[in-house]
Design brief:
The structure holds 2 protein chains of 2 kinds. Chain A is an alpha+beta fold. Chain B is mainly beta. In chain B, the strands form 7 sheets. In chain B, strands 1, 2, 3, 4, 5 and 6 form a 6-stranded mixed β-sheet that branches. A 4-stranded antiparallel β-sheet of chain B has the order 9-8-7-30, with no helix packed on it. In chain B, helix 3 runs parallel beside helix 4. The radius of gyration of chain B is 23 Å and the shape is globular.
């Protein structure tokens, strides 16, 4: 067993020595020929035209609408949001332009799932408004997942404020 | 002999505990397979950062048992100091970062100082120094005829939230010693590599009224609009040849998974469920997908054929498995294990497969999310949060070696490798 192991090791060693690369000139430059994609400069893009100077517009309702708040991991409109919904339907009835419905979540989710949860909340609000006779084609939904937090403190009251749907008119 | 092996095994367990996280134990077999190797630094100015990256590369490869002592010694000499005679190999190196970065490496047999390999590496951008090291270790790994670890040469693309409504998309090397913001301003999310060569990424922009998916060439800035959708739009996966995408989109306000054929521009709806279907990943021969759905009332992992047919449950463990990644038939998923809604935010990672119900824990402590396989499926990247600190973790599924690197960026939105 030991002899076999030694023989195998010796053969592998000989093979390795035999396969050794010809030694390049250590003074050579830029010879990482097979890693050119790392050598190249990558872009730096600035898209600051979005939301400049007033991020507050993106984490609350506006244009007379009121935000609708949700329970943990839930996307059904609770009875205590009825007054806010009735108010929003009145505003929607008189709105001159399209209505944007934005779904938001707390930070207790990951990746895509949180964005889908935000969308389900937006859909619940849209369906509720549409049920009162508002043309669904006048409403556009976008989920912002956990990206538009109102607050970031680790407290239940903060998380509650982030689990919401904001409504505004499309500009 | 048995006592010697036991001693080596004990020392290896100790080393793993020092440097690893959540390492599961199959040590005996690994000790026999990995090559003992030491590093000797001949640089004019020694750098602990350079040494640490070299050490990390050797460890995470799964093919080496590196000596963690930072030895200092001459590059050009073939002399091996007695303390290193017990090693199988010695890497002698110098790193010069005065103008750009220049790395010289020599691989020697520890027993007699025979040179096996030598090469110089240079790059004009000093910041990209970590990539020189990764390339050198990748080359040494290949010279010694171990399975490829070319994934250490790849960029990690990730999005982080900066302020409410704003994010940045950044690139990093796998250790996050190199970092660069490539898109800032606005809300740009879900970066996903578009090709294996990492020349293009897909990402979702919120600049317009609707979420819009773009393809961006990261070298020349060419940007192409791929699709837009009401509600949400995410490129969840790209097939092997880059010709098809799995998208999560909601043209009618319902998040479902679609397959987009880039050549014909045709979209095929793969799932159709009134709840949540997201996070599609190609599995097996790319004729099937796994995805996350709440069709049982909680987030869990399911699979189905792209051409239709029944949906079947993949994971029979946990009550909140809300993200997954796949490679071949392997699936890694994160499972929320907090005892209450707002207590410790505990997520752990588990490994399973499409063909078996066997499940193996990858992590056991902290919050572990965003699992991503390496291109060969041998290593899993993840984000670990423990207390107030964050780290990028890696677990080598073959060697069971784990590594953590400090991660100081703001809240991560998404990662791709």
């Amino acid at each position: 067993m030991t002899h076999k192991l030694l023989l195998t090791t010796s053969l592998i060693s000989l093979l390795l020595i035999g396969c050794a690369q010809p030694a390049p000139d250590l003074a050579g430059k830029n010879n990482i020929s097979d890693a050119n994609h790392i050598e190249g400069d990558t872009v730096s893009i600035d898209e600051n035209s979005y939301g400049t100077g007033s991020t507050g517009n993106y984490n609350s309702s506006s244009d007379g609408f009121k935000s609708i708040y949700f329970g943990f991991a839930d996307y059904s409109i609770s009875p205590d949001m009825e007054n806010n919904m009735n108010h929003n339907i009145e505003v929607a009835n008189t709105a001159a332009s399209k209505i944007k419905i934005e779904g938001n979540c707390d930070e207790f989710g990951t990746d895509e799932y949180n964005y889908a949860l935000g969308l389900k909340r937006a859909k619940a609000v849209k369906d509720s408004i549409a049920a009162q006779g508002i043309d669904p084609s006048r409403m556009v939904m976008v989920s912002f997942g956990e990206s538009n937090a109102v607050c970031t403190e680790p407290s239940e009251s903060c998380y509650e404020r982030n689990r919401r749907v904001d409504i505004r008119l499309m500009k | 002999m048995r006592q010697l092996l036991l001693a080596v095994v004990s020392m290896s367990i100790f080393t793993l505990n020092l440097f690893g996280v959540d390492a599961t134990l199959k040590i005996e077999k690994d000790v026999e397979q990995r090559a003992r190797i030491a590093l000797m630094d001949g640089s004019t100015e020694q750098s602990s950062q350079v040494f640490d990256i070299l050490l990390s590369d050797l460890k995470i490869s799964g093919h080496f048992l590196p000596d963690s002592t930072h030895h200092i010694g001459d590059l050009s000499s073939n002399y091996i100091i007695p303390a290193l005679k017990s090693q199988e190999y010695v890497i002698k190196y110098t790193m010069d970062q005065r103008s750009g970065a220049k790395l010289l490496v020599r691989l020697l047999k520890a027993s007699d100082g025979t040179q096996i390999f030598k090469k110089s590496y240079a790059i004009s951008s000093k910041e990209k120094m970590p990539f020189l090291i990764h390339k050198a270790i990748s080359d040494i790994n290949n010279i010694l005829q171990y399975p490829s670890i070319s994934w250490i040469n790849r960029y990690v693309a990730y999005a982080v939230y900066t302020t409410p409504g704003r994010s940045e998309i950044r690139l990093a090397d796998y250790t996050f010693n190199y970092k660069k913001t490539i898109i800032k301003g606005g809300l740009n999310l879900f970066p996903k590599w578009a090709d294996r060569a990492q020349r293009n990424i897909y990402y979702t922009s919120y600049k317009g009224t609707l979420p819009t998916l773009y393809k961006l060439n990261i070298y020349n800035g060419t940007k192409t609009k791929i699709a837009s959708s009401e509600g949400m739009l995410v490129c969840s996966d790209v097939n092997n040849d880059g010709s098809k995408l799995l998208l999560t989109m909601a043209p009618e306000g319902q998040a479902d998974i679609y397959e987009l054929d880039l050549a014909s521009k045709s979209k095929q709806r793969v799932t159709n469920f009134k709840g949540i279907d997201v996070n599609g990943r190609y599995v097996d021969d790319e004729s099937r997908i796994v995805f996350v759905s709440n069709r049982l009332g909680y987030a869990n992992v399911f699979k189905k054929s792209i051409e239709g047919g029944a949906t079947s449950q993949v994971v029979y463990h946990g009550r909140n498995n809300n993200a997954c990644d796949a490679h071949g038939d392997k699936i890694v998923y994160s499972s929320r294990e907090s005892s209450n809604a707002f207590g410790d935010n505990t997520f752990n990672l588990y490994l399973t497969s499409t063909g078996s119900s066997d499940t193996r824990p990858i992590t056991t402590t902290g919050s572990n999310q965003f699992p991503r396989f390496s291109t060969d499926g041998s290593v899993i990247l993840f984000l670990k949060q423990s207390g107030h600190s964050s780290s990028i973790g890696y677990t080598n599924l073959t060697s069971h070696q784990s590594l953590l690197f400090p991660f100081n960026d703001r809240k991560v939105q998404s990662i791709d490798w």
